Amino acid sequence: MASMSAARSLSPADAGVSDLYAAHWHGLVRLAYLMVGDTTLAEDIVQDALVAVHQRWGRLRDSHAALGYVRRTVINSARSALRHRGVVERYVQRTGADEATESAEHLALEHVQHEEMLAALSQLSDKQREVLILRYYSGLSEAEIADTLDISRGAVKTHAHRGLGRLRTLLASTGTQGRTTVKDRDGE
């Protein structure tokens, strides 16, 4: 009986990744989705990031570093996916066909963002878009964003300020500003 309970107990890596999954799956998928605009790809990116943290669990300085590692992995994987998509789009004519059915996750995400917001976000620089997504959609602090993107807090503030200004301009030009309001943390 003792061997059966030992077989059922989880390794530290299994337990840690299970906890990360339970607590952060939806937020990580939302982060990836906002970067790549595709629910299935976003889920794949997050799944791969969780597998990567599981494989490297023993090398993490502490278990609290795992969430930051997963976020960085999600962002880097999303960047790679966007680069790959750009290469493919240059060589392959897009069909323009819409998805026949939307997943439940996609429907749940629709209440969070509007197509105009995604279009406006796509027109920002990579760093501005990443900072705004991490700040306003993932709810990270400036320090957490700086750690995730490996930039200074001052750079986070600069990218957020410039990104918000550009976003306001873009949304005002589409007439969306009244429906979708973006405020910085100071209430501006």
Explain this structure.
The protein is mostly helical. The protein folds into 2 domains: about 10-95 and about 105-110, no CATH class; about 115-180, Winged helix-like DNA-binding domain superfamily/Winged helix DNA-binding domain (Arc Repressor Mutant, subunit A), CATH 1.10.10.10. The protein is about 70% helix and about 0% strand. The protein has helices spanning about 1-10, 10-35, 40-55, 65-90, 105-110, 115-120, 125-135, 140-150, 155-175. The termini are far apart. Mean pLDDT is about 75; it is low at about 1-5, about 95-100 and about 185-188.
Comma- or semicolon-separated keywords:
2 domains, 188 residues, disordered N terminus, Arc Repressor Mutant, subunit A, mainly alpha, disordered C terminus
Number of domains: 2
Strand fraction equals under 5%
Structural class: mainly alpha
Shape annotation: globular
Low-confidence stretches: 1-7, 93-100, 184-188
Amino- and carboxy-terminal Cα gap = 63 Å
Summarize the amount of helix as a percent range.
over 70%
Query: On the 0-100 scale, what is the average pLDDT?
Result: 77
Main sheet characteristics: none
Count of helical segments?
9
What is the CA-based Rg, rounded? 19 Å
The number of E-state strands comes to: 0
- The run of helices and strands is HHHHHHHHH
